[in-house]
Amino acid sequence: MNRFLRTLGVLLLLAVCAPAFAAPGADVDLVKQRVAKVGVLRGEFNQDKQVAGFKNPLRSQGRFVLAQDRGVIWTTLKPFPSEVVVTRDRILSRQRDGSSRVELDGRQQPAMRSVNAIMFALMSGDAQALSAQFVVKVEALPDNGWRMQLTPRSAMLAKVFSALSLSGDRYVREVQITEANQDVTRIHFAALSETPAQLSADEGRRFE
């Protein structure tokens, strides 16, 4: 299974287990003030997954499109071309050459609908949304930078995650997910752009 789909599976479990509680405060407000609110954000990613007991990490890289009103297109270019599209109602995984396709329908798995919001929160630095599932601690950094440390609120979440952290400035630059088994995924975002502000015709079709 695509590594990104595995990460989504962990996030789906988070969505199912998360308590309906939010505690916005001064720290959360700092991040809200510094992170850009954009309709469409494009960029590149490098992802390393360090599996406990293995010397070398699993590496992948590619590009993404985050559209606030549609979802996320996550296109892996290396080591194997593939694409995952996350919308409000489904997760679609496919090979770029069209040779295979896996679709998970949110109408059959209602909890999946929460994955969209969690993905947006991680990629857009939505501290208030993340505070529904985690205790959030924020550190202000120079040049309008920030770092968030996230600790699971519930014992059930703690069985999945040890900790999460995000850092950035106007945008989220890095996400680190430490699972309870000590596997660590680091995602670094680069070449981020808010333009063009609308999806292209091709990007729009890929959400369909």
UniProtKB/TrEMBL annotation:
Pfam families: LolA_3. The keyword Transcription does not apply. The keyword Protein transport applies. Keywords: Lipoprotein, Protein transport, Signal, Transport. Coiled coil: none annotated. InterPro entries: LolA/LolB/LppX, OM_lipoprot_carrier_LolA-like. Residues 1-22 form the signal peptide. Monomer. This is Outer membrane lipoprotein carrier protein LolA. It comes from Stenotrophomonas aracearum. The lineage of its organism: Bacteria, Pseudomonadati, Pseudomonadota, Gammaproteobacteria, Lysobacterales.
